[in-house]
Amino acid sequence: xxxxxxxxxxxxxxxxxxxxxxxxxxxxxxxxxxxxxxxxxxxxxxxxxxxxxxxxxxxxxxxxxxxxxxxxxxxxxxxxxxxxxxxxxxxxxxxxxxxxxxxxxxxxxxxxx
Amino acid sequence: xxxxxxxxxxxxxxxxxxxxxxxxxxxxxxxxxxxxxxxxxxxxxxxxxxxxxxxxxxxxxxxxxxxxxxxxxxxxxxxxxxxxxxxxxxxxxxxxxxxxxxxxxxxxxxxx
Lengths: 113, 112
Description:
The complex is a heterodimer. Chain A is mainly beta. Helix content of chain A is about 0%, strand content about 55%. In chain A, a hairpin with a 7-residue loop joins strand 9 and strand 10 (about 105). Chain B is mainly β. The radius of gyration of chain B is 13 Å and the shape is globular. Chain B starts with a strand and ends with a strand. The interface between A and B is medium-sized, with 27 and 26 residues.
């Protein structure tokens, strides 16, 4: 079975631009979470979606938004990019009813110049 | 709030050495505890977990015991291999919450 997939793998943007990152969960998983991992640090929770509804939000500005589609895939959008948004963005999916068992994708490396 | 503190890295060991990576946590209630591993260029993989006090998680020769009295979840392995070289993250999650709170990570390098 395919694991969590994310696209693109790498992305370079300039300050002020916006970006959309995509995630496809493991087949059958209905929950998707997003994390930001700045170089040298642990991942920080951004959002969690379950059945297309936002179920949790971390301490990130409103420039960050996300949504989940009927097929349970998800998009993370970041507007007005700042240099500090440069990071590895990780998506994780979970099976319904299995709290905390999260499976991570390989991530999207975003560089903001 | 909830937080996780890990042993400062990087850690460098010789093959077949004994490994300990310390992890302590601060949380209200009774969190679930996890160790994740991140190999170069890859995402995070769940290594092991424990959901209640005195539980021992184990996988691939790694072990960690949930110690409520010391709020710790130290990772151990009796004999490390070169292939264990990676970054290790300790994490917690409260109750049914999907939000994982991670430590800063410990980079482990094993020399042959």
